[in-house]
Amino acid sequence: MGDLSDIRVFLAVAQQRSFTAAARQLSMTPPTVTRAVSALEQSLGVQLLLR
Predict the structure, then answer these.
(1) Topology adopted by domain 4-44
(2) Longest Cα separation, the chain
(3) Is the dihedral of CA 20, 35, 3, 49 positive or negative?
(4) Distance CA 49, CA 42 (A)
(5) Which tens digit of pLDDT belongs to each residue from 13-32?
(6) What backbone torsions phi and psi does residue 16 show, to the nearest 5 degrees?
(7) Among candidates 35, 51, 49, which has minimal Cα distance to 2?
(8) Which of 1-5, 21-25, 33-37, 38-42 has the weakest average pLDDT?
Protein backbone atom coordinates (compact mmCIF):
# COMPACT_ATOMS: atom_id res chain seq x y z
CA MET A 1 0.00 0.00 0.00
CA GLY A 2 1.12 3.58 -0.62
CA ASP A 3 2.68 5.53 2.19
CA LEU A 4 0.65 7.97 4.23
CA SER A 5 1.93 11.03 2.39
CA ASP A 6 0.58 9.64 -0.92
CA ILE A 7 -2.77 8.98 0.76
CA ARG A 8 -2.80 12.52 2.17
CA VAL A 9 -2.15 13.90 -1.32
CA PHE A 10 -4.92 11.73 -2.79
CA LEU A 11 -7.37 12.98 -0.17
CA ALA A 12 -6.49 16.60 -0.95
CA VAL A 13 -7.04 16.02 -4.67
CA ALA A 14 -10.38 14.32 -4.01
CA GLN A 15 -11.54 17.09 -1.66
CA GLN A 16 -10.39 19.91 -3.93
CA ARG A 17 -11.46 18.06 -7.11
CA SER A 18 -8.34 19.47 -8.70
CA PHE A 19 -4.68 18.49 -8.84
CA THR A 20 -3.69 22.15 -9.09
CA ALA A 21 -5.80 23.25 -6.12
CA ALA A 22 -4.52 20.33 -4.06
CA ALA A 23 -0.96 21.29 -4.96
CA ARG A 24 -1.57 24.84 -3.75
CA GLN A 25 -3.17 23.57 -0.52
CA LEU A 26 -0.25 21.23 0.15
CA SER A 27 2.46 23.69 -0.97
CA MET A 28 3.59 21.26 -3.68
CA THR A 29 3.97 21.51 -7.42
CA PRO A 30 1.23 19.97 -9.57
CA PRO A 31 3.66 17.39 -11.06
CA THR A 32 4.59 16.26 -7.54
CA VAL A 33 0.92 15.80 -6.69
CA THR A 34 0.34 13.85 -9.90
CA ARG A 35 3.31 11.57 -9.17
CA ALA A 36 2.10 10.91 -5.61
CA VAL A 37 -1.38 9.92 -6.79
CA SER A 38 0.10 7.78 -9.57
CA ALA A 39 2.38 6.04 -7.07
CA LEU A 40 -0.58 5.30 -4.80
CA GLU A 41 -2.60 3.96 -7.73
CA GLN A 42 0.29 1.76 -8.81
CA SER A 43 0.84 0.40 -5.31
CA LEU A 44 -2.87 -0.41 -4.97
CA GLY A 45 -3.21 -1.72 -8.51
CA VAL A 46 -6.28 0.41 -9.26
CA GLN A 47 -7.05 3.74 -10.92
CA LEU A 48 -8.45 6.03 -8.21
CA LEU A 49 -9.17 9.12 -10.30
CA LEU A 50 -10.31 9.75 -13.85
CA ARG A 51 -8.04 12.22 -15.56
Answers:
(1) Arc Repressor Mutant, subunit A (1.10.10)
(2) 27
(3) positive
(4) 12
(5) 999 999 999 999 999 999 99
(6) -80, -20
(7) 35
(8) 1-5
